[in-house]
């Protein structure tokens, strides 16, 4: 498997950057990690760094390929949760820091992801956002129930209220974990903090992230998110992987989708997006 990784993290109009990102690599296996330390509390950046350090230690110690990715991701985030609590209690005076968390494991041409909080993972195919994680937030709950519109989410007074996080309290957070998703050449998996996704439209992110070098695209997206929210811009961070080529495993079932992705620039963009999404849902209906 050949791939390219990009990273970007900007301070915004904040005194401290409480976001942390990492891309860990071993034996053609990749682990992407992002944590957004909770603002308004002491030690958010500490919590996010403990998350990164814990995931790195677990990943380095794991036997590859990981036999049960869903169990591994869940247990790793639980370990990070208690590590954050312990780190906070070791301070004088003790503090209760917290962080969001998104992990993405890529091995054997497949991906699994897990998250807690409102940082997101997106899967882009042919610039189309065919999947994103659902935020663990009060506003997301309202939106999923149909009680508020998509447009109302960004201005809701409780938009920053999360229902789950790593750290903060001793209760073990429920981790949302995906099933295995087969990857295709050209796919981009992006993890990002709310500082990036909140000001930008998903299709806008997709069009930029598929245009040119992945790191340049992330830098541009982070800059645009910062400019749109100035002078109240948040920390803005993202880490992404673009799959350049894969072994010819399972290609027969995906040729139709890949052909459409490769011809995307030649087709009507709206029609192409609809076609790609419909075929992708058929392919992954049992996986996501």
TrEMBL record:
Residues 4-243 form the PPM-type phosphatase domain. Transmembrane segments: none annotated. Coiled coil: none annotated. GO terms for molecular function: protein serine/threonine phosphatase activity. SUPFAM superfamilies: PP2C-like (SSF81606). PROSITE patterns: PPM_2. InterPro entries: PP2C, PPM-type-like_dom_sf, PPM-type_phosphatase-like_dom. CDD domains: PP2Cc (cd00143). This is PPM-type phosphatase domain-containing protein. It comes from hydrothermal vent metagenome.
